[in-house]
């Protein structure tokens, strides 16, 4: 301490821990209050067509109403997250950032993204699949280590491949959202994926299930899914195939074109669960008038193990 040591980290040092320590020291030197490290959420489909990209981009839009959000498209060979919400071609992609990783800083990262809303940016997957082969796990880790220091939420659209690169990203995710549908093929794939996660020592508290296009009157219900897969936190998203497909085809976020749609309302509620907004205190006058009267309540069906919004 007399020598002026500011941080002590155990060896070997994880890149995320090192980046956070450097940022803390830099802020102290600039006289700034430390910034909370952003949350890292990963979305992975257990079967093609489950809707993971739609949910990741849609929740990104919802979270960006109050927080800063970066979505990183890690579906390196077939990623098209940007096209779900924007019709422009990216000037830079993750491959360009990886190629110039020595230049990586907050400005370079921001300049490499496409800003699709004031608080929402997307770092696109490479257009050329051959460029994807040159991206390494350590480069992705460096990007994520920097991103969580400058964005409140970092969302990963992982794709379906579970390889060394995606595992490196999943290791650092605070929550992995496994996206599925209420069908037997999807449940079978989800079971395989959960077994892989167990072999990677991911605890049940790190994994949550999202059942997309859920029909409460369908033959497979929440109880059936829980019996097949075990007790995980489970979220359901209702089916609105026609409007959701139209929004994807036009590259327009559903919550901007159809805010009253049940899927939009569902994801808005989900975003509030992921990022609770501080309660606004009532004035003394309002408290006096409202004494003994219950205020309006948001109707929802919740249990300890699931969050289900009709």
TrEMBL record:
It comes from the Bacteria. GO terms for cellular component: cytoplasmic side of plasma membrane; cytosol. One of its GO terms (molecular function) is kinase activity. Residues 39-200 form the AAA domain. Pfam families: AAA_31. Gene3D superfamilies: P-loop containing nucleotide triphosphate hydrolases. GO terms for biological process: negative regulation of cell division. PANTHER family: SEPTUM SITE-DETERMINING PROTEIN MIND HOMOLOG, CHLOROPLASTIC (PTHR43384:SF6), SEPTUM SITE-DETERMINING PROTEIN MIND HOMOLOG, CHLOROPLASTIC-RELATED (PTHR43384). This is Histidine kinase. It comes from Massilia psychrophila. The lineage of its organism: Bacteria, Pseudomonadati, Pseudomonadota, Betaproteobacteria, Burkholderiales.
